[in-house]
Design goal:
39% helix, 233 residues, disordered N terminus
Length: 233
């Protein structure tokens, strides 16, 4: 019995090392001295798709669309994208940033840096670091199950009686496997006036028995912008 119990503990350990957790693990860094309540508008850059996943233009566009749609909805403050930022700064300085971006990227970056503060209060960058579907395996193992035995007998007067007793028995469980999603995103929010980092997050989320990476991706995006909104309120 002791050897069976030790085997059970061992297989449980292997299971937890092999199977994904099914949980999110956000790691945050927040500038506690920054006054988020002063934020009135935000610039949201496209998310950088730096993972190794091969995807079509349509799939990449879907990720961008989902990212911007949820960010704008959850923040509940005016937001602009890169196109609108270029237009705003171009009008303010009398130069066409769309043209400058194509002909002189270094000058474009400097003009944006100098004039970002006139367009928005903060800006947000994000990077998709991992976006995969994997397979987890639970090794074959033994589990313990409680069973009840019923013993009947007749007394000397012919009456039937039942005695119950419980015992624990080992049950063999064969190897099992299934899909899981693995998505990691890094977010960084900056103060537009100083360029100082005010709120970062890296979140890895793994979900068992799922092949829907987009839904896992959306959950991470919603989580960050919902928490950023709570700081602004």
């Amino acid at each position: 019995m002791k050897s069976l119990f030790r085997f059970f503990l061992l297989t449980l350990t292997v299971f937890f090392l092999t199977a994904p957790t099914g949980n999110a693990s956000p790691v945050d860094s927040v500038d506690s001295s920054y006054d988020f309540h002063n934020i009135k508008n935000v610039m949201i850059y496209d998310i950088v798709l730096s993972d190794d996943t091969e995807r079509t233009e349509s799939e990449a566009a879907s990720l961008q669309q989902n990212y911007h749609m949820q960010a704008e909805k959850l923040l509940e403050i005016p937001s602009i994208n890169k196109e609108r930022l270029n237009r705003k700064i171009s009008l303010a300085i009398g130069k066409d940033l769309d043209v400058i971006e194509k002909t002189n990227p270094e000058e474009y970056a400097e003009l944006v840096r100098q004039n970002m503060r006139a367009a928005v209060d903060i800006y947000v960058n994000a990077e998709l670091a991992s976006y995969t579907i994997g397979t987890y395996t639970i090794p074959a193992h033994t589990e313990w199950k409680t069973v009840t035995d019923y013993d009947t007998y007749k007394d000397k007067d012919g009456h039937t009686h039942t005695v119950t007793r419980q015992r624990t028995v080992p049950v063999y469980v064969p190897e099992q496997s299934g899909p899981y999603t693995h998505v990691k995103i890094r977010f960084t929010s900056y103060d537009a006036k100083t360029g100082k980092v005010i709120f970062t997050r890296e979140e890895l989320r793994e979900e068992n028995d799922s092949r829907n990476c987009l839904e896992t991706y959306n959950k991470i995006v919603r989580s960050y912008f919902r928490d950023l909104r709570k700081k602004i309120k």
